[in-house]
Amino acid sequence: MEYSPPPLFKQGPSALARLIFFVVLALALLISDARFNTLEIVRGVLGAGLYPLQRAALVPRDIFMGAADLAVTSATLRNENTKLKEKNLELSVKAGDATQLNAENAHLRALLQLGSRASTQTTPVEVQYDTRDPFTQKVVIGKGAQQGIQNGAPVVNEDGVIGQVTRVFPLQSEVTLLSDKDQAVPVQIVRTGLRSVIYGTPKGDTLDLRFVPISADVQTGDELVTSGLDGIYPPGLPVAKVVRVDKQADTAFARVVCLPIAPVRGARQLLVLHYEINQPPNPEEVEAAAAAKEAKDSKGKKGKAAAAKSASATATANAASTPTATAAAATKNPEPAAVAKKTEPAAAKKPEKSEHARKAEPARKPAPGAAP
């Protein structure tokens, strides 16, 4: 007895076949996107298309936060106003000092005939939401390529470095925070000037200052700022502060644990820096380009020499083949040689006739005064 459904109710391939097909398709898409970035354009189009839906999903949160802001008491507003005034006064003093230092720096650079190192522009942005991946420290900001956001631009707030732009969409951008395990920032210690690289940790709560020798002068409480040697971060931005230094005899480097100065997770309003450094090209890159050009020229000269050598060899072969052809022609046409042999006896008899003629001629008298 047949238990299969009638043809009208058949559902096509089995569930197992469809599962295997979609699993293979998903793996192929993952591998191709990870290796060749084949879905980058699709991802950008989907991000632009889903942007209105994301904004619509954030409307309840904005309404709730607006209502919470309206419910704030007057006492809280007075306290915040007092703190902001104190902060404004402190920043005004620092701004005056910075203006004086900038004028002095410009005067010294003009005196030493040094050009300006870099120009920095800022774009204010706001954090919209965190990413869905729990194993990364990333946030999404509300401006993208249409607002001039560049991939790799540093992101800061009033306290220090927050992170770096790692992915740019038309209307949004993804920022990798300073505490992410894959984020690295070149820094230096303000007190000693020691340069190193600071990394995030898997937990995302501390920072790890790597490649610090055991003999280096690093103390708890040292402040770390950006060194500016990478050409991405402007020099002098506050990054972290040292909280623990572990030096072990069996390792070449010390373990330095730091905490970020800026509130990496608590910041909402940020600044994206457009940092353009004006410096000469790297000598190693210039030498590598010159060496590549020289190798290309020498390769072209070797090709020309090989062509000339082959041409000369061809000419020599042609010259060597000419006597052979002449000899063959002489072998095929022996008549000129026979003619030469016939005419040779006649030429040999001619001197005998001239000798008899000389004997028959009377002897000439020598001229007077000549030797006999």
TrEMBL record:
Residues 285-372 are annotated as: Disordered. The chain crosses the membrane at residues 12-31. It holds the Pfam family MreC. It comes from the Bacteria. Residues 305-340 have a biased composition (Low complexity). Residues 341-364 have a biased composition (Basic and acidic residues). GO terms for cellular component: plasma membrane. Keywords: Cell shape, Membrane, Transmembrane, Transmembrane helix. One of its GO terms (biological process) is regulation of cell shape. Residues 129-273 form the Rod shape-determining protein MreC beta-barrel core domain. Belongs to the MreC family. This is Cell shape-determining protein MreC.
